[in-house]
Each structure stands twice: as C-alpha cells, then as structure tokens.
Design a protein that fits this description.
- The complex is a heterodimer of chains A (about 350) and B (about 270).
- Chain A has 9 helices and 19 strands.
- Chain A has helices spanning about 40-50, 90-100, 105-120, 135-150, 165-180, 195-200, 215-220, 225-230, 290-300, and strands at about 5-10, 15-25, 30-35, 55-60, 65, 75-80, 155, 185-190, 200-205, 210-215, 235-240, 240-245, 250, 260-270, 275-280, 285-290, 305-310, 310-315, 320-325.
- Chain A has a 6-stranded mixed β-sheet, sandwiched between helices.
- With about 270 residues, chain B is mainly alpha-helical.
- Chain B starts with a helix and ends with a helix.
- Chain B has helices at about 1-35, 40-50, 50-85, 90-95, 100, 105-115, 125-130, 135-150, 150-165, 165-175, 180-205, 210-215, 225-235, 240-269.
- The chains are: A alpha+beta (about 350), B mainly alpha (about 270).
- The interface of A and B includes residues 74 and 82 of A.
Chain lengths: ~350, ~270
C-alpha cells in the first residue's frame, strides 16, 4: 500500500514541527526518514500512524484519505524506539495482543503468534516477560507484535536507537531481509545516515520541519540539492564557498597553482581507511580520507606540510547546485555535465 | 578502621530508627493488645458482640463498602485527568484534591453540618423532599468520602507518570479502543498504585472519627461507627468495650494491608 502525505503541517505550541511536508512512498518500498533531532521526522511518522493529528494537509494510505481516521482503524504497525513492550504480559501475550482485540479464537492466535515468533527468532521465549529479554529481543518482539495484525504499512520510529552498535547492525540486516520476504510498505525514522543508506531503498532527508530532498542513497550522495543534504548524507569539508567530500581531497607533496598548503595535524588509522586531519594557513580544519597504501606512498607524519587539491567540489549558490571538477582527477572524471539538478522524488 | 567505624554508625542508626518506631508506634499498640486481653478473651468479646458493638462494626464496614469503591473510581479518573490531559485547570484540581489532607476532620464535619443542617444551604430543600443527610447514614458516608478522597489519586498519579504513554499508544496502533487500552494496558500497569491507595482509603474510612462524629450524632445502635463506639465506651469507663473495639479496628486495618501483600506476592511469583 503506497503512502502519500500532502502539505502536512503540525504545530506544538510555538514550535512548528512540520511545514508543508509532502512525501510519496511507493507500495512495498522501504523508506527512511532521515534527519537530525527536532527535524520533524518522528512527528511525520506519527501523523501517518494517526498518533498525531495534522493541523493542515492530508495523509493517504493506498489512495484513501485517512487524515481523520483514528489510529486504531488505520491498520498500521508501529514500532517504538523504547519498544513499548507491555510489561505485565508475556512475549506470547504481547505478540497476540492485536489478535485478541480482533477477537480471533485462541487456537488461531496461538498458531499465528508462534509463526511470528519463529520469524523473529524468539520461539522458545514465548513464556518470558519483557523484563527477562535483552534490548534486541524486546525490539524483535515489538516488531512481531506489530506484524501480527498484518498491517497495511509498517512504521518504525528509531527502532534501533536504544541498542548497542553490534546488535543494531545485526537487526538492520535482519530488517532488510524481513522486508524482502514480507514486502509490506515500510517507513523508518533514523538520525543515522549510515543506517538509512544501509537499509532503505529511498531516503527522505528532513530538516527544520521540511523535506530537504528525497531519492536513493546514491542520488542524495552524488547530487545533493543543498548544503544541508550534502553534509548530512556523507562527510563533507567546507572550503570557502565550496564543499568537498573527504575522499575527493587529494593529498600531494608538491605545490602547484591549484593546491592549498596544509599542516598534518593528526593521522587516525581506521583500518583500511585513514583519516588525515589538516589545518590550512587561514586556520580552516579539513580532513582527507586516504587508503592505507596511499598513506604509505606519501609517508605523511604528523606536523609536516603537505598540499591539498579538491578533485571534485560542489557549491550551492542560490538554489541550484553547481559542480567544479579539479583539472586532474585520478579518481576518474565524472561522466555527466557539471550542472546537475536535484532530483526531487 | 574506617569500615569498623562505619559499621558502628550503621548499627547506631538502626538502633535509633528501631527505638523510635518501638517507642512511638509499637509500644502503644502492644499496650492496647495487652490491656484488651488482660482478663482473658471473654470481656472484650462480649463487649463487641453486644448489639451496639455489632451494629457499630456493620456500620463501619458499610462506610468502607460505599466510600472505598466510589473514591477508587473517582481517584483513577482524576489521576488520568491530571496526568494524561494537560490543562490549565489541573493545578486547581490538584490543590482541591489535597484539601482533606490540609483541613482538620472536625472542620470538614462542621462544613457538612453547615451545608446540610436545618439552617444550612441545602438542608431545608432536601428535608422538604424527605431526604435526611445529617444524623443519619448518608451524612456519615459523605464525611467518610470527603476525608478519604486524596489517597487513590495521590498513589496513582506517580505510577501513571512513570509508565508513560507509549504502551497505550502501542495498544491503540494494534486496534484497541480507549476502553480496551485502559482495561488491558493502563489498569494492569497502575494496579499496585491503586491497590495501595485502596488500602490507605480503607484504613482512613475505618478509622475516621472527627468528621463522622460531628455529622452522625453518635446514637448507639443507629449512627455509631467503631471509632465512635470506642470513644463512648471509653468515656463511660467501659474499658473492655473500648479496648476490644480498638483491637478489632487495628485487626481490620492490618488485614487489608496483609491481603494486598499476599496478592502482590502471588502476582510476583
């Protein structure tokens, strides 16, 4: 079931949480709402679920206007950051809650619950209480509970936000596989761009209650519509008016007319990837992402002077982004023209 | 050295705490029990199984049966209003709820007297319609409800705040309507707060003296609850009755507390 939000606005007291937000989520897709805290992404998700009502605009699920439909009638599965486990119920009762409300008979409930517990790999823990589960297990239980009622859409509000890094990575992979199996239209909220790019097919970047840009991870990374998207989706250095990705920052030992002088302040080895931090003459701090062989070839040490040359840079003057390409680009010159229009999906 | 001195101070504190409790709470209770059964079981038993004694017991239990459920329902509703529906009037409601804590029971009794008395605001109109509030059971029920209003609210509000709204929201996304959410999610989550409030309400209603004594007229065998019975027996030097009824009151209150603990332990097991 596709989801459409048209001109949504929502105000909490003096705070405008959503300003004329419109998004389109295709049927069966996995979409991430990405943005910093306070950007309105959770509010948008909650209005789709019906947990918040809109001040203006409308929400359509499968082309039906559900704006005034109460939450219990919208048939959405919702997963909360802090699990919202029913503490006084067992895992079995938690997962079966929606079915019990729908007055399924006991045997059918039991079948369905066990099927779901197998799906989320919690079979065998049916009799436990949420307090006896780990964070990751609780979140999988919450997911099974949301899926039990066969929702039209699945909405996840920072579902992995409260988990530690390892569990988060596992669950993220697992969610992607689950989506491939179930194909239920899914929207999840995150502030972690890596998580969004890893899991989602489509990203909607939000800031200050507005949609900055939406598109595929590649699209947003390669053709950011503005400075915010460029710096939020991927790392970025600012050089005057232009923005350079750290991996587009070439480091050379000989100066020429296109290079800038910088002092190596710190070298951080992150495995294969090396982060080299520079200070320019004017005090600007910049970092370059090198590979281990590159570093070995350059033989950089902390405190030395080296020269920086952006292989590719973007600037956002006015509304349309423009791209400047460095004269010699060992990374291969981009295949398209310089001026690119942001693809608004 | 340090651990030895800290152990000593810990024991000192414990002794102080226990001593204080013993002197102020336990000693009087022990004295009452001792005095009651000083001459065996018969005298106190005879006193409280007298017609007046039994009537007082029945009336006290009637107060509990009426006042406690009403204040429980009101208390839960009021706590939900205070916690779940933020509104400017909440501060006023919050303050009003505390009135029975702040006002002396005697004053509460007097105010009911002024309202429902023959010279009162409502008294004459009610009397014309044949409704008698003062010096009868309805007045005593009103007084009991008044003095015990805050307990369930006060015990429920912090629990409601602590559980938050996410579980309720999750239930609603799963299709539960407001009543189903309340019955299946909210109520089970706050039940021990409510239960504690109920125990305190029960104890307060059982023990209430001041307000009830003013509005009841304290007629033996008619409008006399156990505490009023104790007072009258004491004034008339019928110590067996006074002590016997006191012990009965204490036992009733303690068994409510015990019942809750047993239920809770069963639940946790």
């Amino acid at each position: 079931m596709g989801i459409t939000v048209e001109g949504a606005s929502k105000r909490f007291g003096d705070f405008q949480a959503l300003k004329d937000v419109s998004i389109e989520v295709p049927n069966g897709s996995l979409t991430a709402l990405l943005g910093p805290s306070g950007s309105g992404k959770s509010t948008l998700l909650r209005t789709i679920a019906g947990l918040e009502t809109l001040d203006g605009g409308r929400v359509l699920i499968d082309d039906e206007d559900v704006s005034t439909k109460p939450v219990q009638k919208r048939e959405v599965g919702f997963v909360f950051q802090h699990y919202a486990a029913f503490k006084h119920m067992t895992v079995f009762e938690n997962v079966g809650f929606g079915l019990k409300i729908r007055k399924w008979d006991k045997a059918k409930v039991a079948d369905r619950v066990h099927e779901l517990l197998r799906l989320v790999q919690l079979d065998g823990l049916a009799g436990r209480f949420p307090s006896q589960l780990s964070g990751g297990q609780r979140q999988r239980m919450a997911l099974a509970r949301a899926l039990a009622v066969e929702p039209q859409v699945l909405l996840l509000d920072e579902p992995f936000g409260a988990l530690d890094a390892k569990v988060r990575k596992d669950l993220r992979t697992w969610l992607r596989h689950l989506h491939e199996e179930m194909h239920v239209t899914t929207i999840f909220v995150t502030h972690d761009q890596e998580e969004a790019m890893d899991v989602a097919e489509q990203l909607v970047v939000m800031n200050n209650g507005q949609v900055e840009q939406s598109g595929s991870a590649d699209d947003l990374y390669e053709n950011p519509a503005n400075e915010f998207v460029m710096s939020f989706v991927g790392e970025v250095n600012r050089l005057g008016d232009s923005f350079v990705r750290p991996h587009d920052m070439e480091v050379v030992l000989d100066a020429d007319e296109r290079t800038q002088e910088g002092m190596v302040q710190r070298i951080v080895a992150l495995g294969f990837e090396i982060r080299v931090e520079f200070v320019l003459a004017d005090g600007t701090e910049i970092w370059a992402q090198l590979t281990r062989p590159e570093l070995q070839r350059l033989e950089l040490v902390e405190g030395q002077i080296a020269y920086l040359r952006p292989a590719q840079a973007k600037s956002f003057n006015g509304s349309s982004p423009s791209e400047t390409i460095g004269a010699s680009t060992p990374h291969g010159s981009p295949d398209e023209g310089d001026a690119e229009k942001p693809a608004a999906v | 050295m340090r651990s030895a001195s800290s152990a000593r101070s810990r024991w000192g504190l414990r002794a102080l705490g226990l001593g204080y409790l013993t002197l102020l709470l336990l000693a009087p209770l022990v004295a009452i029990f001792y005095k009651t059964f000083e001459h065996g079981l018969a005298p106190p038993l005879d006193a409280i199984t007298s017609a007046d004694g039994l009537h007082a017991l029945k009336l006290s239990l009637l107060m509990v049966v009426i006042a406690v459920p009403l204040n429980t329902i009101f208390g839960i509703g009021c706590a939900l209003l205070l916690v779940r529906h933020k509104w400017k009037g909440n501060a006023v409601i919050d303050a009003v709820i505390n009135l029975p804590f702040a006002i002396s029971p005697v004053v509460i009794g007097l105010s009911l007297f002024l309202l429902y008395g023959t010279q009162g605001w409502l008294g004459p109109t009610l009397a014309e319609n044949g409704i008698e509030i003062l010096f009868s059971v309805p007045g005593m029920v009103l007084a009991s409800i008044f003095v015990s209003v805050p307990f369930v609210v006060r015990e429920t509000v912090p629990v409601l705040q602590e559980i938050g709204t996410e579980q309720e929201q999750a239930a609603s996304t799963l299709g539960a309507n407001a009543w189903q959410t309340f019955r299946r999610i909210t109520l089970p989550s706050i039940r021990w707060g409510v239960a504690y409030g109920v125990v305190l309400t029960t104890a307060r209603v059982l023990g209430e003296f001041g307000a009830v004594s003013i509005v009841s007229g304290s007629r033996s065998g008619e409008t006399e609850t156990l505490p009023l019975f104790v007072k009258k027996a004491f004034d008339n030097f019928e110590f067996a009755g006074a002590y016997g009824a006191s012990v009965l009151l204490a036992v009733l209150a303690l068994s409510t507390l015990l019942a809750m603990n047993v239920l809770k332990r069963k639940e946790d097991a």
